[in-house]
Amino acid sequence: MLEENSEVWEVFIQSKNGLAHKHVGNLHASDKKMALENARDLYTRRNEGSCIWVVKSTDIVSSESEDSEAFFDPSNDKMYRHPTFYKMPDGAKHI
Amino acid sequence: MDKNLLNYTIRLGDNCLVLGQRMSMWCSNGPTLEEDIALANISLDLFGQATAFYSFAEEIDNKNTADDIAFKRDANKFSNYLIVELENTNFGFTIVRNFFFDCFQFLFYERLKKSDCKNLSDIAYKSIKEVKYHLRHSTNWLIRLGDGTDQSNRKVQNALNEIWKYTDELFELDDLDQLMISNGVGVDSSEFKSEWKNLVDKALVEAKLKIPQNTKMISGGKQGKHTNSFTELISEMQHIPRKYPDAKW
Q1: The pLDDT of residue A47
Q2: Which residues does chain A have within 8 Å of residue B33's beta carbon, measured at their own beta carbons?
Q3: What is this structure's pTM?
Q4: What stretches in chain B show pLDDT beneath 70?
Q5: Number of H helices, E strands in chain B
Q6: Cα gap A25→A22, rounded to integer Å
Q7: pLDDT value of position B164
């Protein structure tokens, strides 16, 4: 019934206020409202979320696997970019 | 034991259980995977509400358990509205039926929240959040189908023509209703009939659907006079507990 006019949407759930939205999966829907409601029904049934984002899969720009050398390898040997030399202040969560 | 409160509570539970059972029949038959899960979620919400009412009934009764009430009563002892027991027929039909009932249930629970009976009021507070979502779901689909293609509009309009005759029953009051209203426990549904109609009209305009004229209204659910397919629904639902009375799983 809906196959020909439905699109794939990616779903992002924020589990608590202040945390980042995390990708949880995708679904089919034919408009924004339906995408949001389907996301609610499919991905928040066990009390997972406080906010939902849905984004059309076609609107996401992804890097290609053949680019991965140029994109990611140069950071391999730059340990100093990791903030591992600092002590975490007490009370700082979610970093 | 307050026999009237018991019967009134069971009646409220019956509407939830029967519609929940109808919705569960969509499981694995939904038009899409997503919608299949949405309908099953609604079914589970309704079973939850039925459980809440029947558990309170169990407390009042002190004899029959919530399971007895659901699974050991004959079909003609159920006092749900006819509209909730109508066969699903097709997706559009289910949406129209649910839309009418969701509008009703939303307004009903709004008032049940103010009931002098703390238990019923608590159930209403908890359930209305679910009903708000059910109403959102059915309203959006009603508009989508009504204002969709010629075919989808025709299908939901046909469904509406068929279902409309069961809507008056929602606002009829019998002796038990009158009694419960007068003691501050029950809800007077006749009081919000025009509010319900406004809510319905607003969505129907957007959905490009019309209410049929000169419809002969049908009722009888509260008196246990049900439609033909109801016995089958109940016997399927009760099949396992009746065949294996004390089965545990």
Answers
A1: 77
A2: 28
A3: 0.90
A4: none
A5: 10, 0
A6: 9
A7: 98
Could you tell me if B38 lies within 8 Å of chain A, comparing CB atoms? Answer: yes
Average pLDDT of every residue of chain B: 96
Domain, as residue range, for A11? 3-62
The CATH number of whichever domain residue B117 belongs to comes to: 1.20.1260.10
Judge whether B41 and B20 are in contact, CB under 8 Å. no
Residue type, B41: N
Task: Please report residues of B whose CB lies closer than 8 A to that of A38.
Answer: 34-35, 38
Q: How many residue pairs from chains A and B have C-beta atoms closer than 8 A?
A: 31
Residue B19 lies in a domain: yes
- The closest alpha carbon to B140, from A95, A25, A94, A33, belongs to A33
pLDDT tens, position by position, A25-82: 999 999 999 999 999 999 998 877 889 999 999 999 999 988 888 888 887 778 777 7
| CATH (domain of A30) | 3.10.20.520
Nearest-by-Cβ selection for A37 from B31, B33, B137:
B137
